[in-house]
Amino acid sequence: MAGSAYSKCSTHGPVSGLPEPPEGPGIHVYLFCSKGGERYLSHTSGEFTAEDLCISAAEAVGITPLCHVLFALYNPQTRCWYSPNHSFSPENSSLVLHYCMRFYFRNWHGLTKNERAVSRYALRSGASQGASPLLEIASLEYLFAQAKYEFVNEVVQMEEGDSEEELSSLKNESLGMAVLHLSHQAMQMGCTLQDVADKVSFVQCIPRSFAKYISKVNFLTKLRMRRVFAEFMRTFQQHTVDKGRLGAHEVMYKYISTLEHLSPSFGTETFPVSHLELREDGGGGSSYSNTTHAQGALKDNFIGPTTHEIMVTGTQGIQWRKVSGQKALENPYLRNDYLKKAKPKSSQPNANTANKWTSFCDFPEITHIAITGDNVCISTQDNHCMEVQMNSSQEARSFISLLDGYNRLTAFAHHYLCHEVAPPRVVLSVANGLHGPMHDDFVLLKLKKEIEEGSFLVRWSALDYRRIILAVLNKNENGSKPSHKQFRIQLKGSMFCLEGWDREFSSVKKLTESLKTFVLKSGSESFTVKRCCLPKQAELSNLLVMREGVHTDSLFLNMTQLRFHHIKDKDIVKKQHLGSGTKTNIYLGLLLVRGGGEDDEDEEFNNNSTDRKGIPVVLKILDQNDKDIDMGFLETASLMNQVSHSHLVFVHGVSVKGSENIMVEEFVEFGPLDDFLRKEKASVTPQWKFIVAKQLASALNYLETKRLFHGNVCAKNILVARRGLEPGTTPFVKLSDPGIALSALSREERLKRIPWIAPECVDSGAPIGNVADQWSFGVTLLEICNNGDLPMSGSTLFEKERFYQQRGRLAEPSSQELASFISMCLTYDPVERPSFHTVLRDLTEIMIKNPDISPSETLPKTDPSVYHKRYLKKMRDLGQGHFGMVTLYLYDPANDGTGERVAVKSLKQDNGQASECWIKEINILKSLDNINIVKYKGCCTELGGQAVQLIMEYLPLGSLKEYLTKRKLGMPQCLMFAQQICQGMEYLHFKRYIHRDLAARNVLVENDSLVKIGDFGLTKYIPDGEIYYQVREDGDSPVFW
Q: Any idea which positions bind ATP (predicted)?
């Protein structure tokens, strides 16, 4: 096929075998066949895109919108394809272009048994996946005409023969192709094969170099070849045509399948590149960092020597290989020559032997593509990246438009990988929520899945390029099957109009929004337009090509069963406390593993573990007070144990120790991202932040393709594995496990997660697919831009809930482009949020522009009295009283051991009376400020504000009672302590408080010269106007004191 390899044509002048193009300026599109017999479509005025020209060519040929996406425009002079959005100005140029099938899948006809079959998706028939033919009749006939032209004019590269026998076989195959060529012509004319052969010489149906060879041989050889060909025709007519074994369609199938055999490069495109690098995405040196180099290469018109080749095929994806130095210097555009002699066989290795092809990826694995000048960077789901430098920016665009088209055909029919080559109609469809020209069966199936009456779907017509179909669902009240009706929308220039309505709209979206205020009538039926069914990622329909052996279902994981590695209790060692999560405590630990010696098999029976190696891990231990959420905890462990991505934290497994459930996951050195950003904000650059955001999006895209969601995306759940602040390095982050599922959290706990939790999840408690992660990603991106902070961090639960009820907007970055991108993620309508494929694509393009991402508003200062549970690292218990217990913690936001020690008091039991007294004690201590009163530092809330911990200064010498038993005090020191206690009590009485529990155990010693009064759990307030307090409430009272 045209452009099957980079040897598009063998000459730089006009291609032989074509009628002369029209003279004068304009864009002249050559057609291999057409309904009206015309061979050129000339466009001489106006502005056109390549997509516009392809649509006019498709209409002239009779190719439907379904198969239109297989075709493109090819320039035989430059040997390059045009991307669909390429713009032409006919008045300023004179171009002859070929309208060709570019996107090709070998063995679509199914005649080659050892190659995978290809078809379109269809609705299931029984237990098997349904299938429908890839090509319609008009597309088949055009492909046949194109194949004949390319075979005869040697546009495709034929397989080289290494012996006389192989050359002879190749010539015989060529004669067989001529028989098929003439047979099809005979069937079309309704005459015999011999009749056609009398009028058309077989020499016109074989490769031109073969015809040239025949013209130069002697008369006897020519006679012998004519006799051989005549025998071919007689046998074919007698045993095949006359017996009705082959019709016109079968002849075309046979011709194309034989051409695939003769030319292994048929249906492929190969690109020479001057640089190729494979690496992990985000690992530095990507195309966006080489913008200057790429543009400089174009400016100097310098093309380096070819070092590699990249081959793209519809069935095998992207492959590459190195090119030897000698081959790189040869002219790659020479055609096959039937006159050459067979190469003598030699036992010596050939220095020019091509290297084997190495697979890089298949099209569904591509997440996004970036282009700067002639540099192209292809990123995949497994976080790998191929960066290449092409010979020109036009060839780079040709290359990525090829990948983009194949991706739409095999993976995501309504998505584009790169803005630079995006087809205008796909861009229009994305903006308006349009589906492609789907079959009616898929339209009805999608509508029937909708619960809401008035659901509608908008798609391009499968027959008319300027018509859009509005399909509306009507659920009948009498219990009968739901019905649907299709209404036509006409595209008139750039305006859209519903048939039967004289109003015109600038977009389909505006038209359907207007229809929501009307009732559509069709006969006696009435239809309302309420909710649009938008295209979804990985949605199967006849728009996608199904390749045998590539099953979309294999991409998805079955999460209905719990699967994780069981770790024995003796294999883990618990170390220091690192902090707390939602209903979990987190510890540093060691996972003991075998050393890999010969005696490993006996180690199971050996209790001596001194020779075993310990891997640093993090132990997440579920609170034993929350046994009702065991299943949710294990489901999270199962999820993380079944996924594998470089930017997801690895979960080793689960250990069950009695009633204690422990999740064991990898230890990530530099801790949570928000803490890292606050600590290193002076060193972190905008590019650093973009790289981190892309890595997070890559992990979430991986989950999205597996039809999984995370449910708790935020900066504190992103861990920094590599700082990326040193010269020549880039950051590397990993998304940690989501913790307890939202469905297991109380409403107050979900409210506390605002603004990270998606609005629709606050009440339901369960994420609605990946759209919840898309919201969380938008908030987290703002968090990254703001160096780990958000304006709502200090808001109350009421304020947070009110923010969502009023559909509030968070402060956005200064960059208008980035702000618009974040707004797409933070839309309150879940179906409007972009998929992570779109997120990766748009984020990469914004990153290349390096915008200002500083916050547009100054964030309020954080309240120093608000302590976060995650930073409290338990050291030891200090003691307990009647209501509460006191624990020593290290409050370490920097996660480097430099935090302050604090005493944390919490209730031993949670009941109404105790909680009321507890809040009163906190409020009392908060109002006191005296050197002889224990200093209030703040509060730590958990369970969505239902539980509050009191944070106080830590006095290392303990209570006065303990101090007196350990030390012998002189009279002056005793009097000094007594005086300080009196001063503290005087201050309390001045504030109209009665302590009611003053005792040596409730007086704390800071040092040998200072004591402070503590424990205000029983303290009472004397109301104004009264001089004493009388006990009226039931409850405990310290009668001895």
A: 878-886, 905
